[in-house]
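Students often ask what a holo structure prediction actually looks like on paper. The answer is less mysterious than it sounds. You provide the chain, you provide the ligand, and the output is a string of discrete structure tokens encoding the 3D arrangement of the protein together with zinc ion.
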Amino acid sequence: MSKVSLRIVPILFGVFFSPVFGQDRFVIDEELQTYIQEKALDDTISESIGTVSNGSLKHGKLVPYKGRNFMYFDRTSYLEGRAFLNDLALKSMLSTYDSLLAALPQRYFNVMECSHEHGGEMFPHRTHQNGLSIDFMMPLVKDGSPYYGLDTIGLEHYALQFDDNGRYTKDTTITIDFDLVARQILLLDHFAKQNGLAVFKVIIKIELKDELFATQYGQRLKESRIYVVRGLSPLINSLHDDHFHIDLGFKFTKTPPAQNKQTFSPPND
Ligand SMILES: [Zn+2]
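The corresponding structure tokens follow.
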């Protein structure tokens, strides 16, 4: 079992066998550098095969460890090959961050787990199999200002708990910035469409949907054709409060891009 799986099992059951430690996340050391260089060699167009829950990925591309306004959230997860995407999904994500940088230059974001280099099962995720799923960390605010105090705990971020109003249970002055969540989803869909993709499914804890839709961008999201889940199993539901999950899909099913081997059926829960 991989290191990430060994860490995530106790995390998901709420038992911490290892002390919570911050990561010196901004440093790209030699190990990371070598890994990034090695994975940058494949410039062949990606192929997403099958579906997000039963699929694989060919020529997956590594998400940058950090960009000007975003960062991958966990060094071990990154080095264990859990940060790969279809090239068009990656391009859409990077355009989204660029756009957010122009609009909100002071705001910083975190991307969480994506897919294995060759896709396939990635425990404990049920999807994330063909390079078209992305987990995004919820942007937080405290007293009206961006808050980053919970961004540095790596994989344990998945275990953080928020109440049904989007307040961090251990400090209710820390809350999810729902307007920014909705804005990010809309932007991602916008840029995805330029790449022949679209946001096909958003997974967020069901109890948080009314908070999400109550915001300015949330209203636009609600009016959009983007599908936000309507029902989830209790476990899956409880996990989607610290982050939101996106499944991208190919937009044109009749005239698919050459690399599109994905079979798509309308989302259902
Ligand atoms: Zn996910």
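The CA atoms of residues 257 and 265 lie 17 Å apart.
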